[in-house]
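Progress note, sequence design subtask.
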């Protein structure tokens, strides 16, 4: 009887293992085909749904400036770190713009401390720099609440995380783009003018972000191009 039970358990487990093996937790497949034909010497935007939505809302901002969007909806910093080699390093870009942290604070892959979020960002920075890729770090956008996690109150944690990112950037002379200060409202959330759902920017929100990040990218790329 016991042997039969063991065999049954093994058979049931065997049915689930292939499905687990096929689960693309880090999102390697999302840009697998696009990466095969992606031009070198571009600027890569690494991020989550905010970056992914940016490309969909303002595609010409990316195509006209030779930028590549590598955002995946719902992703946390640890998932971005896992796919960083495939979606950034292997593309041999001039620079990478990193925008991460919203979904970490929303606990999309479980609780993670602010210091450990910063640690994931630092790891991405160090990987980029080791491969001679310039880095631009960005503040997390303001959010008063998350529609999918209304029990959380993220505004203060976002401010604290942004201070950690800013301090690290200043200490290591890494360009830092402060979206938060430009987009926040009186509650330290994202105003309806810039995001209907309080998290994902509207076209006007992306206009504001583009005005902040493009001059920084231009300066970084110009510096890299100097003999």
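Output:
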């Amino acid at each position: 009887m016991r042997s039969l039970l063991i065999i049954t358990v093994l058979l049931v487990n065997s049915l689930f293992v292939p499905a687990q093996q096929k689960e693309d937790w880090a999102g390697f497949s999302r840009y697998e085909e696009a990466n095969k034909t992606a031009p070198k010497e571009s600027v890569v935007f690494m991020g989550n749904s905010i970056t992914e939505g940016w490309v969909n809302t303002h595609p010409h901002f990316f195509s006209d400036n030779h930028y590549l969007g590598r955002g995946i909806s719902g992703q946390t910093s640890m998932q971005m770190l896992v796919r960083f080699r495939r979606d950034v390093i292997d593309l041999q870009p001039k620079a990478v713009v990193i925008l991460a942290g919203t979904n970490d604070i929303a606990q999309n892959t479980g609780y993670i401390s602010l210091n450990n979020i910063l640690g994931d960002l630092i790891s991405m920075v160090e990987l980029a720099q080791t491969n001679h890729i310039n880095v631009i770090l960005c503040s997390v956008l303001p959010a008063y609440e998350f529609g999918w996690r209304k029990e959380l109150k993220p505004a203060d944690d976002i401010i604290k995380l942004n201070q950690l990112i800013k301090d690290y950037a200043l200490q290591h002379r890494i360009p830092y783009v402060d979206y938060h200060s430009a987009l926040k409202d009186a509650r330290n959330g994202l105003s309806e003018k810039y995001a209907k759902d309080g998290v994902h920017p509207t076209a006007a929100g992306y206009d504001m972000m583009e005005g902040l990040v493009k001059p920084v990218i231009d300066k970084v790329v110009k510096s890299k191009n100097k003999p």
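The chain has one domain: 28-225. Work on this subtask will continue into the next period as scheduled.
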